[in-house]
Amino acid sequence: MDFQEKIRSILIGIRYSKSFRLRDVTGSIADYIVYSEDSPFDEGYFPEITSMSNGEKVLRNTETGDYFRVNESDVIFSKKVSSNFEAAFAELRDDVAPFLERLFGKFKIRDVRRLGIIFQHELEKPKKFEDAVKPLTDNLTGNVSGLAVKFAKKLPSQEALIRKNVNDYVNTIYNFEQAEELFSASYDYQVYFEPIVEDLRDCKIVEFLDASRASLDPRFYSILRKYEG
Predict the structure, then answer these.
(1) Alpha-carbon distances, residue 14 vs 86, 124, 128 (angstroms)
(2) What is the DSSP letter of 47?
(3) One digit per residue, pLDDT tens: the chain, 229 residues?
(4) pTM of the entire structure?
(5) What is the rounded CA–CA span in Å between residue 89 and residue 85?
(6) Which residues are CB-contacts of 5 (< 8 A; sequence separation ≥ 6)?
(7) Hey, is 64 helix, strand or coil?
């Protein structure tokens, strides 16, 4: 099975040091995302903008399911994938990532702590998954409405996309959830910067995206293959 064809959303998140100054400019950031000629998003891409009590702005397209969130400590972009993962990933890599670098520079968003990307998959219910969980539930899985397994694994430094002579590291989070006939499997690939990186451009976001995708098969899909059928 080509598991990439089962990807239904891609979420990229950037966490930086909390800046209360950003509460005052999230409106300007939202305008820049929606109206700037620099933006990869058409003017109608995010028809809804919601203001939260903490100053967060949420740009949303309910038809596509895409959204963009910005607040005092995070920027998050989530894109739904209907069928063409290649096109969605190319848009994220070639258009959105460079735009994020420009956005961070324009609004002086500094001190990046973490880059993260989540690939969320929807698959047919794998019977072997339920069988694997039975020993942990005293064989009660047939009577429960849902199952969830989540674990994290820190990658060896030689495999990580990190700077040399610092304490950067890559963490991966595996999440499997079964509800009725829907089986959701997500892979969260994160790079932590220690010490923090002042400028997003120095985080090599495009290389980060490429590394996250390259790790899907050996890291995540090797697990999914065990529960096919």
Answers:
(1) 22, 31, 35
(2) -
(3) 789 999 999 999 999 999 999 999 999 999 999 999 999 998 899 999 999 988 899 999 999 999 999 999 999 999 999 889 999 999 999 999 999 999 999 999 999 999 999 999 999 877 777 676 666 666 555 555 677 889 999 987 666 667 788 889 999 999 999 877 788 999 999 999 999 999 999 999 999 999 999 999 999 999 888 877 5
(4) 0.92
(5) 6
(6) 83, 85
(7) coil
The C-alpha atoms of residue 145 and residue 179 are separated, in whole angstroms, by 6
Amino acid at 162: I
CA–CA distance, 166 with 3 (Å, rounded to integer): 35
3-state SS, residue 176: strand
Contact between residue 109 and residue 75 where contact means Cβ atoms under 8 Å apart: yes
Q: How is residue 92 written in tokens? A: 């994220």
Angle at 186 between CA 67 and CA 217, to 5 degrees: 120
Instruction: Return d(Cα 33, Cα 41) in angstroms, integer.
Output: 7
Q: Quick one: which H or E segment has residue 201?
A: none
Q: Nearest 5°: CA angle at 117, between 126 and 56?
A: 120
End-to-end, the C-alpha distance of the chain in Å comes to 11
Token pair belonging to 73: 């400590």
Residue 66's nearest CA partner among 106, 34, 109, 103 is 34
In sequence order, what DSSP letters do the residues of 7-44 get, joined into one string?
A: EEEEEEEEEE---GGGGGTHHHHHHHHHH-TT-SS-TT
195 cis-preceded (ω within 30 degrees of 0): yes
- Residue reference for tokens 């006939």: 181
Q: What is the rounded distance in angstroms from the CA atom of residue 157 to the CA atom of residue 167?
A: 9
